[in-house]
Amino acid sequence: MDSTANDEAAAWCALLRAPGVGSRTLNPLLLGGTTARQLIEDPPPNVPAALRDYLREPDHAGIESDMHWLDQPRNHLLTLVDPAYPALLRELANPPTALFLHGDPDILGLPQLAIVGSRNPSSGGRRNAHAFAAHLAGTGLVIGSGLATGIDAAAHEGALSVEGLTLAVTGTGLDRVYPAQNRALAHDIAMNGLLVSEFPTGTPPLPANFPRRNRILAGLALGTLVVEAALKSGSLITARLAAEAGREVFAIPGTIHNPLARGCHALIRDGAKLVETGDHILEELGPLLRRAGFSPREAVVPETGVTETLDPQHQSILDAMGFDPATTDQLVARTGFPAAEVSSMLLLLEMQGHVSSEPGGLFTRV
Q1: With 0-12 CB in 10 A as exposed, 13-18 as middle and 19+ as buried, what is 262?
Q2: This prediction's pTM
Q3: For residues 313 and 316, what is the distance between their CA atoms, to the nearest angstrom?
């Protein structure tokens, strides 16, 4: 980075660290033709007093931390005035003033689908997120999510499992990973995709950061898929932000007995598209994808192995279970088998991958 570019990047980092001053204040100033360096060295009269006071003595230690981070390989700062700034994100009423990037920045320009959902999903919800992400990433779509546990992690992992592209928008500075248990996943994403944040280095995972993270996630994508969500959750905030931005919102329906399906059902009642397969999403996004010059590849369907013929008693357990969660007692009542026998068959069916155990002593057919 030459000295002039270095000075300008440092000026942007200084502005991004101004306390109490956000993009609503900075964007009009910087889009008016004033460079970040000019804004710092000779603030125009319309600069708010709080920003003017800060510019007299900016956060030098924080700026030095940001510049050190930017000197590392595959780290970038993309500003609102850069021609490479994502066009879809620029359409938001309040786009981020700048983005810190770690990984391949070209991914930002490719068609994306955001996949979001519960941090504590059912095993079925986790499988759905992984499967939808794998299928859609296999066609060439970038899968975006928020690097959280649960559905987010499953979506990222699904895309990576087919060597597809995935992008994670974080609610912290990119010098840290939150939650820490996703450190290895974040590394895989950085090596095969992109990590994105509007927050400078050292920013901790404050609660107020995540709605801001969600607006970026929704803003970058052509559509947002909600896999599982409670009625009050951050995933519904992301879906609302996507709808407000004029983007498509998709939801996977579930059993009425699953509280994590209620958020999806509420979205569907409010106009979200009900989807059962990844191809339903591609069909809905078709005109937008063609306009972007994107032609989906044929997704590779993994081998499912030889179809297994079950013991008649085991099949009776599955038939009695149906597709709603059931307890051992319910299955005893429905089949007439002894409780010990039902428990033994459920254990074997779970080991074979035919059922999964859920919290509360429930079993669900896979």
Answers
A1: middle
A2: 0.86
A3: 5
